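Standup notes
- DV: blocked on the single-chain target, sequence here:
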Amino acid sequence: MNLEIRGIHYHISDTSKEFIERKLQRIDFAKDYIIDLAVIISKEPHGYEAEGKAHFKWGTQVMVKESGFELYEAIELLMDKLEHAVRKEKGKKVEHKGKPKSKLHEELHDELEGTL
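- DV (later): unblocked, structure below
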């Protein structure tokens, strides 16, 4: 997984990068499915805006955005939302891939499972 952390109108300190990387461990379950992940922090007049973009290997892109008055608050909210979106997307793909295509396929699948 390629990770990009950058700031717009804000210089991201090493401490902030470490905090973001530590929080990204929450989506380690999907690191094999995510090709690129970009986290963008921007300083706005009313606080901070955090944006996350995840590109999955099957071509789907998930983008989430959160804002907060404080930097770490915005990052926490973003990570909650990003984790939810990644779980949802991974679940869709795994469910779709694992479902039999028809009743006949289901019966054949059950027969094969019984012989093993």
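- Follow-up: Strands lie at 2-8, 34-44, 47-56, 61-68.
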